[in-house]
Each structure stands twice: as C-alpha cells, then as structure tokens.
Design brief:
The protein has about 120 residues and is mainly alpha-helical. The protein has 5 helices and 2 strands, in the order H-H-H-H-H-E-E. Helix content is about 45%, strand content about 5%. One of its GO terms (cellular component) is cytosol.
Length: about 120
C-alpha cells in the first residue's frame, strides 16, 4: 500500500508539471497563489503536506479545478506486477555473480541456471 508521502509526492509532481506546462516559474506561481516561493518548491518536491486551502489557491492560480491536479493519482496504487519464478531466480543469481549464463533445456520448465565467473 502506498504511503501518505507517496501521494504528496505524486500531487507535487502534477503541480510542477502544470506549472511548467503553463510557463510559470515557482516565483510566478507563488505570487499568483499568495504563497511563498520556497513553499511551492517544497510542495512540488513532496516535502510539505499541503493543506486543502493552499491546494485550492494553487489550483486557482493555475486556472484549474482541484480535481484536474489529481488526475492519474491512484490511491491505493495497483499492486506490483507479478514476476515469474524464472525471472526472480535469474534476478537473485545475477545479483550474486559477476556474469550469469543461462542454459534453458527444452521441456525442463525453469531451465538450468549455471552462474560462472569470466576471467578476462
């Protein structure tokens, strides 16, 4: 499950995207919203838990409805993609070896994995 920090960072990323798309600097947006420039930067980086009032001010300064800044925000996020057993094994072995050679034999299912170190 996603943490509150993830949501705050995603919202900040959307605010930054819209600000840049509209050609505003952080200082321009801060002035239009009646907020401090450093506060806008902290919100965009997800360092501040933005209040609903300040969120409304930023959305208004960007001439957007508040829900427009929440597009593509998914909470809770979808579960991580499942990886196959073969990919997990390869990942484990690759993390422990300098080089990994994989020999897949037909009909063996997972295959035969033989980590070997190359000497150059």
């Amino acid at each position: 499950m996603s943490s509150a920090g993830d949501i705050i960072r995603m919202l900040g990323k959307n605010i930054r995207h819209e600000r840049v798309r509209q050609g505003f600097s952080q200082e321009d947006l801060a002035e239009k919203a009646g907020l401090h420039r450093t506060y806008i930067g902290m919100v965009e980086r997800g360092e501040r838990n933005i209040t609903l009032l300040n969120y409304a001010k930023i959305a208004d300064a960007l001439n957007l409805a508040m829900h427009d800044l929440m597009k593509d925000l998914v909470y809770p996020p979808p579960p991580p993609k499942q990886t196959s057993k073969k990919n997990r094994v390869v990942g484990l072995l690759a993390g422990r070896c300098r080089f990994l050679f994989i020999e897949a034999r037909p009909g063996s299912g997972l295959g035969v994995f033989s980590p070997r170190t190359l000497h150059v």
